[in-house]
Design a protein that fits this description.
3 copies of one chain form a homotrimer. The first copy, chain A, is mainly beta. Chain A has one domain: Porin (Beta Barrel), CATH 2.40.160.10. In chain A, about 5% of the residues lie in helices and about 50% in strands. Chain A has 2 helices and 23 strands. Chain A has a 16-stranded antiparallel beta barrel. In chain A, a hairpin with a 3-residue loop joins strand 7 and strand 8. Chain A is globular, with a radius of gyration of 22 Å. Chains B and C meet through strand 2 and strand 3 of B and strand 2, strand 3, strand 4, strand 5 and strand 6 of C.
């Protein structure tokens, strides 16, 4: 990116750069009281989190690029150090990047935007759930991405995530394999209008096997990165043969106004051979709709190289004496995730229950937010969140359903 | 600092630098035998520790500076990787730095010196105890520092430390808030004389709450960074409403001789509403006096930008053929920390005991040391320590009091 | 190395560089079925591992060089972050490097080659076992290395490894001390022929002491870096006073053909004073022979500065349109490690058993591999491994001996 420190050899064969994405969040929850005899759960009144502290190191020799990105931040409870990516890329083919190694393969428009350009602090829950099936951060991937002016296509064969086998108590004895696919197009483009359509699909052909067999649990917090108790859950899903997800993505820009939405359907196949009960397939889904308006500065534009909308532009750096205020945008989002196993009919031998007795539950999150950019490298965010989660059997903090609110700010620096 | 690798854009709007502070210690303990049936404790005869391995990464764009500093060293038992700081700073106001993010807010002259410039391997115990109440390394801070030629003032509102909530067994459900304040002045300045006076104050308005409530234990090793058993303790303090500390700092330079001292008083308020017993407030205190003389090279000078004395200067790099020996200084320090709860009168319902039956104890440390600087980037240290710690009820390694000695060397490189 | 990003001051007094060694492995095991009622062990059919992700940071001021190298990879189960080295070096003496700090002191030809230049994915097992007695990665070392055109000698006094004391359950209360020594020569040198001879020796004068006393277990996987169950073991050796190892190394190059071999004998002395039984000394040994031929490109040459053979050279970067294929080499290796305690005669009071009832076992590994270098910075490896391990009493996965196969590829980038 522009402004990233870079050194090159005189003949341009070599280049090295060191970039940064630093995001630190602070805020808390209000009105998240438990009902009845539920346990309260962890909803901190005021706390902080280093969400991302990524050091983007990149070495290039001719058409070969190596990216290694340590991350000193954490999704919601900081204090550990990990890896965002470490991969080798070949860029010798036209508009194409071939990649092998630990990487974040992207299938959703929201992920394709890159985490420094988000409208809100966090991705919608359904995006977080489907991207982690066979993609997500530091996933071993072999594949590539190709873009043209009006379309983009990407596909990756994927394996484990960095650290998946790093458990002393219950190590993985057979690793996951899967895939991630994305295709997008721009059916209409003009100065004032951008239309984005696309489809994303992913599958885990087999999930990690431990001494507990092949299990998986969908679970998420309420789109707030402060380490709060996860209320949304599918319940533990056992004897899994395959998990897949697919869905459409849509975006529409009119001048400085941007409307986006994505829908994903998730399917879970059980390995019936391994059990006496004839377990049914399960189906979950979720979606979000987000609206955004840039009050000051250039509006969010479309980047054909990543098939996604990008961050607003600052016309003049913040300088109150000259009446320059950088850029400012306002956003709203409605996000629904339904992990209730409608149609499941088998009760014994697994967590799947009769209708109306689901192990999973449903979450709705409303968010509104302001982002201020004093210059192109600094971003100050403030998000208000209202969430509502239905009851989940077996989750002691959510026996009776729960709703509440959060206010969280973020300071971001990117180079 | 001078000699730190830096690259800048031609228009000076951008700069990036990557610095280092590497400190590796080696040494051991002598004559630390247990008395009676005490357990021996861990006083290694000869071992090593990577004290600090900090990579100072800094990105600047105009008046905005972002600092991210990973640390591969550890206070006394190396092997983990963490974060020293990650913060965003605005330097657009005259002689002022405004800071938000993980930072080390400083209230003591000894901390203000920076850890690469210390006279001894470690800070005095009382400084270590009070700085960690609401400051210390990687503390989330919002505040600023302003300096002039004859004075400096700094104040920060603070939150959790990086990683505070990162416990799988007993997570923090309500995070700490606090503050750190410092004001210093230079009442007399001449070529041969510097007088430094100041005051530091700090408070934790509430401390981290876990399933055990709000608790705190003051504890420290004997000012030696080799992972030895901590003998000094206040005992566990429960049901805490607030902890504060404040005290004066003093420094006097005459030519190459430097005399310093600081005193801090610590107060602990209990939350009596939460208990049946009417718990008293507790009071601890500690101080140190240190003398230093520079045998070869420039003496320790005063840096008005940090309100503290700094490291000696090397006139000529080490080169025995030319009779150049770099710089050499000798130091001595007397450090006392008293965690006995004098005046406490309540025995049941808490650890506070009748007079003469304190849960806490008292530590006295005498140190002498030599520091050799072959050039401005390299420092070789050798410290001798004699310590004496009074008995602590309930500490199996210190039932009868303990004294002993340590000899520890350090190799330091700083860029 | 050539191509490593470096910045220098105009007067050449200062230099800073940031290099990389990235190795990511993927592959799996075939035909490693358990026999009888053994447990299967962990032999993943297909998985991945970030073997080395080292960031080589180096600051130089005149004759003083500081190296700090974080490592985000892991020997066989990735997910943790550690340190490869952090040391201070003085290079002011002719052809000599004096070193203090965390370092990898090298005594074997195979280690001296550096891990980016290996013929195979992993060192032979016997090399891995002896180098870790008192050397290995991030070992605290004080010593030096001196080379001339026809010989090289190196010696280090060593302490603990980075993180050795970092155990919350069973910390080290008295740290290890030891030493590592190497001497090599080149009795015959011509354009087509290089002859390398040498000797390596090491000893742990005392090993780390924990609450279990001074114990040590030799153990290794089957020279494959995918986290597989370690089948080879000496059994736990207790009450150890000293461990030493020594042996010869030999290399012979004729044009593009290279033949290498090393043999090491390991001796373990018990501390009989501490036990009632009169424990005997134990003796283990192992060796390997490796043959290599460079099919395309410059053959492996000899580097007198490290006393070892190095990686093949690429004449022209990979460019199929011009008929350039980079470099390609083929290798084969036979590696035997015998940890059976022949001659041990005492049965009670320790693990040492009567002849024929050894606690340790024997491993033989055959490997063949291809390495392709599209350019000097990129290396693609493919290794086939066949292993055979004899039975070990008390190892549930190897009660009846085991053999099997593995196929593993590696993608490497080095700057």
């Amino acid at each position: 990116p522009k402004g990233r420190p870079t050194i090159s050899s005189d003949d341009k064969a070599y280049a090295f750069s060191i970039g940064l994405l630093a995001q630190e969040d602070f805020g808390g929850f209000m009105g998240v009281g438990q009902r009845g005899s539920e346990s309260a759960g962890n909803f901190n009144k005021f706390t902080q989190n280093a969400r991302r502290l990524r050091l983007y190191l990149s070495w290039r020799y001719k058409d070969w690029v190596v990216n290694v990105t340590p991350d000193f931040g954490s999704s919601s409870v900081d204090g550990t150090v990990g890896l965002f990516e470490a991969n080798l890329n070949y860029t010798g083919l036209h508009n194409t990047t071939l990649t092998v190694g630990y990487f974040q393969p992207r299938m959703e428009e929201d992920s394709a935007e890159r985490s420094g350009a988000f409208e809100f602090l966090e991705r919608p829950t359904i995006v977080d759930l489907v991207r982690n099936i066979a993609g997500g951060v530091a996933r071993f991937s072999i594949g590539g991405e190709h873009y043209e002016k009006r379309w983009l296509v990407a596909g990756y064969f994927t394996g484990q995530k960095f650290g998946d086998r790093n458990s002393s108590t219950n190590p993985v004895t057979d690793s996951q394999t899967g895939g991630v696919f994305r295709a997008t197009g721009r059916p209409y483009v003009s100065k004032d209008i951008d239309v984005h359509v696309g489809v994303g699909a992913t599958a885990a052909f087999k999930v990690n096997q431990t001494s507990n067999g092949r299990s998986y649990t969908f679970s998420d917090n309420v789109e707030v990165p402060l380490g709060e108790t996860k209320l949304l859950t599918s319940g533990a899903l056992n004897n899994i043969s395959q998990i897949w997800a697919a869905g459409p993505q849509f975006g529409f820009r009119y001048k400085k106004f941007l409307l986006k939405g994505e829908y994903y359907h998730v399917g879970v196949q059980h390995n019936n051979a391994a059990t006496t009960a004839n377990l049914p397939s399960l189906n979950f889904d979720g979606w979000y709709v987000a609206a955004n308006y840039t009050l000051i500065g250039h509006g969010r534009g479309y980047n054909e190289k990543i098939g996604a909308f990008t961050t607003p532009g600052v016309e003049y750096d913040f300088d109150p004496a000259k009446g320059h205020w950088g850029a400012l945008e306002i956003s709203g989002r409605w996000s629904v995730t339904d992990l209730r196993t409608s149609g499941a009919t088998i009760k014994s031998g697994s967590l799947i229950q009769a209708d109306g007795e689901t192990g999973g539950n449903k979450q709705t999150v409303w968010q509104g937010g302001l982002n201020w950019y004093p210059n192109q490298h600094i971003k100050i965010m403030l998000d208000y969140t209202h969430f509502s989660v239905s009851s989940a059997r077996g989750v002691s903090t959510d026996l009776l359903g729960r709703n509440g609110n959060a206010v969280v700010g973020r300071v971001q620096a990117a180079f």
